[in-house]
Amino acid sequence: MEKYRSRATYKLFQAVEKYHFIKIGDVVLDLGAAPGGWTQAARKIVGEKGFVLGVDLKPVEPFPEHNVRTIIGDITEQETIKQILEMLPRKADVVISDVSPNISGVWELDHARQIDLAQKALEIALETLKPRGSFFVKVFQGDMLNDFIEMVKQHFEDVKLIKPKASRSKSSEMFVLGICFEH
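RESULT FIELD:
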């Protein structure tokens, strides 16, 4: 049995199993990739013919597969976005983001920071996704969430708010899934 790099791997597998937004041969951009659990899961799904690019501030232990690459970079920096565009073999089929702020313990601040990072991930998705692509991003429940969902709805045909079974029930963590990017 394959050993996964993080428990978060199961969250992605469960969401993909239910909504089928990553397929064999897809190009996937993974934002907030460290320690590499989602990158690993995406690679398993896309197989030999796909490609996965992971991006994080922290280094991600290299993958042995030829079709997995990683970048150490800050998704809020234009230089990182430039690197992403250079390293993707073509427009991405899917952008996934498990980016999270350093948790302060002050709920309103943590929620605002998380939504800010989710908005940054959305901006990158708008630049890198091909038409009809998908976007899957971690969010925290709170008063800014509905506005963010409305923002995603402006760019995707179908938008869902989901909580995979692998997410702890007490956690305010949820995921927004945008399906069918309208360029």
